[in-house]
Every structure is written in C-alpha cells, then in structure tokens.
Amino acid sequence: MLHFIKLELRKNHMRNFIQASIIASIVLLVFIYFVAFVAQVEQEMGFQQYQNIYLLTSIVWMIFFSIVTAWMYCRVVMTALEEHEPHSSKLKASLLSRMVWMLCFSTIVMLGSIIPSFVVFSVTETFFPIVHDALTANVMFTVIKTYLVFTCCVSGIGMIAMRVGFMKKSIFMTIMTAIVLCAVLGNVLISVYGNDQMNVILSGVMIASVFVVFLELWGTVTRLQTR
After folding, report:
1. Percent helix, strand and coil across the chain, each rounded to 5?
2. CA of 103: how far to CAs of 40, 53, 70, 205, 213, in Å?
3. CA–CA distance, 100 with 225 (Å, rounded to integer)
4. Alpha carbon separation from 192 to 15, 90, 196, 200 (Å, rounded)
5. pTM of the full predicted structure?
6. What is the pLDDT of residues 124-161, one digit of tens each?
7. Which of 25, 33, 66, 79 to pair with 106, CA 20 to 30 A apart?
8. Which has the closest alpha carbon to 94: 33, 102, 158?
9. Using an 8 Å Cβ cutoff, are 37 and 130 in contact?
10. Tell me: the pLDDT tens digits for 69-104?
11. Long-range pairs for 147-152 at CB < 8 Å and ≥24 separation?
C-alpha cells in the first residue's frame, strides 16, 4: 500500500493537486482579510460577524475544491481503465484502491488547505481585531462543524460529477455538473447553517452518495468484464 501511495504521489496530477491546495489556502486567507476589511470600511454589518465571513469563504472553498476534486476523480478512473484491459482481473482491485486512496487523500488535502487559513485569521483577530464581533468558543466550534459538513459535500459533489462526466466521457460535463451541484448545495448550506440536525442529514446524504457511486461504478466494471 505504501508503495502504491508513493507511485501515486509521483504522478503529476497528484503534485498539481497539492500545489493547487497550497495556492488555494493562501488565496483563501487573503480573501478572508479582504472581506473583513471591506466590511469594516463599508460598515457592512452582515460581514462584521465571524460566522458570516467564514460561511462565505467556506462556500468559495467548496466551489474550488468540488471542481478540482471532480476532475481528479475522473483522471483516476480514466488512468485505471487505461492501464488495465476491461476484462483484466486486476481492474477492479486497481480501481477500488485508487478511488479509496483519492477519497482519503483529497479529504486530508482539503482540510489541510482551509484549517491554516482559519487558524491564522483567528489568531490575528485575537490580538489585532478587524471584525467588530466576539470570537467565542461557540463560534469556532460552529465553524469547525461547518467545515466538516462542507468536506462531506465536496466529496459527494466530486463523486457525482465524476460519474456524470465519465458516463458522458467528457471532462467539461464533469466540471459543469460540479458547478451546478455547488450552486444548489451552496444555497442549502446557507439556509441550514447552524442547524446541527440538518447538517447531519446533509452530511449523511453526501456520504451515502459516495458509496452509491462506488457501487454503481463497480457494477459498471463488472458488466464490462462479463461481456
């Protein structure tokens, strides 16, 4: 397994994903400060609250990683199919291991991208506040829970978009599906923000969608091998 992970990390698309996540983390941090400064100058009370700032930046983060993750999933599936014949007995094992690896890898990278931005901004706000709001433990706990829900949503969106794009054999369809799903889920997440019960249900639906795509893709490969 470690050998497989090393081989995957050596591939350009994995390195590109890590580099994109680092750039995204920096851009996200700058965007958080930008929103806070603009809200202060324009006296925009809605964004003089930490929860609203973090919610907005989280949606931007979700859109970016949903598109990138969907594209990465599509690349992983295509690579597995290119390396093995449809009737090869190794195809299923290769596809499953790659998909599980990509799911775990993308989740870790996504959290590693957003958490540093959140920590840096929160620490600087403790000593040199820009936002006229109290950064309480309750606010931080709500934000952390929100990030976990958003991570589940990104994984679900990425999987669904990958499956649609793979079915249509189009990277463009993969990206467009991810964008549409982000638009729908973004509005849902805003409306249920802070509602723990709805967040648990939404996370469950997204996790279930990941497993459904896994099983459906597995069935598709099985049908290809039995022809």
Report:
1. 90, 0, 10
2. 39, 28, 11, 16, 12
3. 21
4. 35, 43, 8, 10
5. 0.83
6. 888 888 888 777 888 888 888 888 888 889 989 988 99
7. 33
8. 102
9. yes
10. 888 888 777 776 666 665 666 666 777 777 777 788
11. 147/58, 147/111, 147/114, 147/115, 147/118, 148/203, 149/189, 149/199, 149/202, 149/203, 150/58, 150/61, 150/62, 150/189, 151/107, 151/110, 151/111, 152/202, 152/203, 152/206, 152/207
Q: Longest C-alpha distance within the chain, in Å?
A: 66
| Helix (H/G/I), strand (E/B), else coil: 206 | helix
Residue 86: phi, psi to the nearest 5? -55, -30
What are the start-end ranges of the E strands in the chain?
Answer: none
What gap in Å lies between CA 86 and CA 92, rounded to an integer?
9
Residue 115 CB neighbours (<10 A): 13
Residue 226 structure tokens: 């039995």
Task: Quote the CA–CA distance of 103 and 101 in Å, as a whole number.
Answer: 5
